[in-house]
Design the sequence.
């Protein structure tokens, strides 16, 4: 593991945050992560659903996935989890910026088996929609066999949070340009019922709680 | 460039889309990309603002950034650009899914200079907030010297789009579980004026157009 990169931030140290609660909060709010690894001799990035389970990060994929297989075999990996919180309109291009929270985790995944695998799948489902695993049937042996559930320890990471007003130089502040912030966030809409759902099956609490 | 991975999709071919307009639409809507590269012998992922300019993708960063520098030097790179469009609640964990659009671009960035660099910075600003570059002053020589503007040709890529209702087996459809979709999207809020903005400077059209 000597090759794990220094996670100390090389720039903008004021935005580096050494706060495990803030990291957990970001991982719990985000649904998607981006996994970086070497595959076929090239650095690739895999977008995938992620969920935190305690002090580990879970992801899953098909056993047939060409890019998930090396992860299950313990390839070096990074996982970036980013939420866009806004756009900062400064009075210059240089000071313009995004508001964001972004974590990068480093390490190696392990593939879960047996009970841990089933529990991991439940955690993945409940991470997307809290409470959902209790509303659906258990996975079959065939489904479990076709699925990789991968776990990464959350122990090497960096977290950057950008949440400031524009920091324009005074000579720009006294000028005529407006400056400010456009907030951004992921908005979940009202649940839509699939066409084949029989009459009388209500929208479950899990879906109404997430989709406002 | 022999090491560029096959961009043909290894799984779920029905979700692979060979449509340049759909790719451009995704790149134009997203504000953030995730760049994967090898740095210090480890596969890292850098979240960063991205914008499409014609048939290239632009990113920028500090000349002091440890992870942007190898990109400017032509390191192999992937860029993933993903938008979450919803959460699919199927009647089993196995069929549960996300609605998403996700592109991965492969290649090598080049650092822009001179006029192309200035134009690239304008494109980056206008990609975040259309029209914004015309409302702020030009970048100074010092600012330009401190900034890397990186360009990647959009010529090797894959695009996956997941936008279907749950595809549960008939034995699950006849069961008692609800199934459906929770739509998701990035919502931009009303522009907020920075504390130091003088009275009488109105919120510009660029900001009001984006922040509904």
Sequence:
């Amino acid at each position: 593991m000597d090759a794990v990169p220094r996670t100390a931030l090389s720039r903008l140290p004021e935005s580096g945050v050494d706060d495990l609660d803030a990291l957990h909060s970001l991982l719990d709010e985000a649904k998607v992560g981006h996994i970086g690894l070497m595959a076929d001799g090239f650095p690739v990035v895999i977008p995938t659903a992620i969920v935190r389970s305690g002090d580990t990060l879970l992801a899953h994929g098909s056993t047939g996935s060409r890019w998930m297989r090396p992860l299950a075999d313990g390839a070096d990996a990074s996982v970036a989890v980013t939420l866009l919180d806004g756009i900062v309109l400064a009075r210059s291009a240089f000071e313009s910026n995004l508001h964001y929270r972004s974590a990068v985790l480093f390490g190696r995944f392990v593939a879960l088996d047996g009970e841990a695998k089933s529990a991991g799948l439940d955690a993945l489902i409940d991470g997307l929609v809290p409470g959902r695993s209790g509303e659906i049937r258990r996975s079959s042996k065939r489904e479990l066999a076709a699925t990789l559930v991968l776990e990464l320890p959350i122990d090497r990471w960096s977290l950057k949070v950008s949440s400031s007003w524009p920091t324009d130089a005074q000579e720009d502040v006294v000028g005529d340009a407006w400056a400010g912030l456009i907030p951004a966030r992921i908005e979940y809409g009202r649940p839509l019922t699939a066409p084949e759902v029989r009459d009388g099956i209500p929208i479950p609490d899990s879906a109404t709680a997430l989709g406002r």
Q: What stands out?
A: The longest strand of chain B covers residues 76-89. Chain B is about 20% helix and 35% strand. The domain at 14-210 of chain B is CATH 2.30.110.10 (Pnp Oxidase; Chain A).
